[in-house]
User: What shape does this take?
Amino acid sequence: MLDPYYHMSDGRQIACYVNMETERDIDAVLQQKVAGVGIFRTEFLCVAEKGVPSMERQAQIYTALAEKLSPLPFVIRLFDFGADKCDLLFGKKNPFGKKVSARGVGFLLQHPKILQDQLCAIMRASSIGNVRLLLPFVSSLEDVCMVKKMIDTIKQKTKKFSLGAMIEVPAAALMADQLVQEVDFLSIGTNDLVHYLFGLDRNQASAFSKDIVPSLRRVLQMVVCAAKDAKKPLILCGEMAAHKELLPIFLELGIESFSLSTAHLSAFKERMQALHVIERAKSSMLSPQRVRSR
Assistant: This one.
């Protein structure tokens, strides 16, 4: 597929983005013919760097990746640390010990030096012009406002960049109409949202069950409506976008941008192509010329 967009008969363009975990993924990403990077999971840099990278090192990485991707959008998600991830990323050398009581942006606000360094690094990379900043695991308006205050206090000349919030917990979904007023875009993290919404194991959250559809549809509808009412972009991230039972529902709800790992891109493209063929066939059957010939 040379075009990273699927052109639907109703005029919509469905965009396909990719998730990225390490700087080494960039060449594979560029070969995928996608609309951009929907999430760069920066916490995985800590594995290669054997610890939290310095501000200078982060700026170097983010700037180099932004340059390679330009002019495609490059969404950099702040470190999403938590008890389970810290153990995974740092092993026995976990610098935060076992007393990790928060996750995502909440954790970073408890460790302002790490947050400030990362913000400075991202702001330096934003001079390329395609960088967007994404806040993970937002659970309150205060989370967003506190990060925005820190951004305002950083004395650097930088281009204005877009700020987004991830909708990963029910609390964020319920107040999406307020959160969207404080940011430039929303990103739905399907795995964690389903995990916390239904009490499923995190590793099983992407598994499909018809039982989850009615509730999930209602929650997603709230978020989609909030973004549309505010005229703000919305992107859905996660493997669920490639599921043949769920993708039509996401499209029906009005979601037009999806971001997946490279492992699930092919499945997503195949599903979209199949839906596109079905849609074109239906459109052809209902065309005026076809109707008159009956």
In short: The beta strands are 5-7, 13-20, 37-41, 74-77, 131-135, 162-167, 185-189, 234-237, 257-260.
